[in-house]
Design a protein that fits this description.
The complex is a heterodimer. Chain A has strands spanning 5-7, 10-13, 19-24, 31-37, 44-50, 53-56, 65-68, 75-79, 88-95, 105-106, 110-114. By secondary structure, chain A is mainly beta. In chain A, the strands form 2 sheets. In chain A, strands 2, 4, 5, 6, 9, 10 and 11 form a 7-stranded mixed β-sheet that branches. Chain A has a 4-stranded antiparallel β-sheet with strand order 1-3-8-7, with no helix packed on it. In chain B, a hairpin with a 4-residue loop joins strand 7 and strand 8. The mean pLDDT of chain B is 93. Chain B is globular and about 45 Å long. By secondary structure, chain B is an all-beta fold. In chain B, the strands form 2 sheets. In chain B, strands 2, 4, 5, 9, 10 and 11 form a 6-stranded mixed β-sheet that branches. The chains are: A mainly beta, B mainly beta. Chain A binds chain B through residues 33, 35, 37, 41-45, 48, 55-56, 58, 89, 91, 93, 98, 101-106, 108-109, 111, and chain B through 4, 30-31, 33, 35, 40-43, 45, 48, 50, 86, 88, 90, 93-95, 97-105.
């Protein structure tokens, strides 16, 4: 069974530029998450989707971050414009629908460096 | 929202030693997972354990949901066990929605 796929693996951009990350969840997983992990910290939830609807985006900095999951499968996370403090690993995860409280699986992440 | 605390924050072991990592959480949960983050940043699923005890080789985990804690046991540690261990629980956030919330991790270094 294929795991959660993310791309790119690494990205270096200058501050004020824009960047986009892509995630393809495990087949059949309705719930998709984006997490931000700053060096030395645990992952922090940015946004949670169930199918193509947003379940929770309370911790997403909406002035610069946006995310979509138009067809209820893959998802993109965008940052525009980027700031130095956005340097982090961005992790995508998926699981079965939240009502079943099942196991979440993570992709390899995208390491973003803003210079 | 739910709070997750892990201890100890850092642990250094000699190869072959045993260790216990602890995860405390502040509210009821319906999911608890332990992960190992390898040096390349990948989160590897170790256990999905909302309650009870599970074992997988040299690793085992116990969750006592009624007392709001979980323990991860590593026996006969090896250098490949080095990395950061995270506990994550599905509990209510301030929004009233459930989400997977991580602790700050235990950084383990196993020396040869």
């Amino acid at each position: 069974e294929a795991g959660v796929a993310q791309s790119p693996r690494y990205k270096i951009i200058e501050k004020r530029q824009s960047v986009a990350f892509w995630c393809n969840p495990i087949s059949g997983h309705a719930t998709l998450y984006w997490y931000q992990q700053i060096l030395g910290q645990g992952p922090k939830l940015l946004i949670q989707f169930q199918n193509n609807g947003v379940v929770d985006d309370s911790q997403l900095p909406k002035d610069r971050f946006s995310a979509e999951r138009l067809k209820g499968v893959d998802s993109t996370l965008k940052i525009q414009p980027a700031k130095l403090e956005d340097s982090a690993v961005y992790l995508c995860a998926s699981s079965q629908p939240t009502g079943f409280a099942t196991e979440a699986f993570f992709g390899q992440g995208t390491r973003l460096t803003v210079v | 929202g739910i709070q997750v605390e892990q201890s100890p924050p850092d642990l250094i072991l000699q190869e072959g030693a045993n260790s216990t990592l602890r995860c405390n959480f502040s509210d009821s949960v319906n999911n608890l997972q332990w992960f190992h983050q390898n040096p390349w940043g990948q989160l590897i699923n170790l256990f999905y354990i909302p309650s009870g005890t599970k074992q997988n080789g040299r690793l085992s985990a116990t969750t006592v949901a009624t007392e709001r804690y979980s323990l991860l046991y590593i026996s006969s540690s090896q250098t490949t066990d080095s990395g950061v261990y995270f506990c994550a629980v599905r509990g209510f956030m301030d929004t009233g929605r459930r989400a997977l919330t991580f602790g700050s991790g235990t950084r383990l270094q196993v020396q040869p």
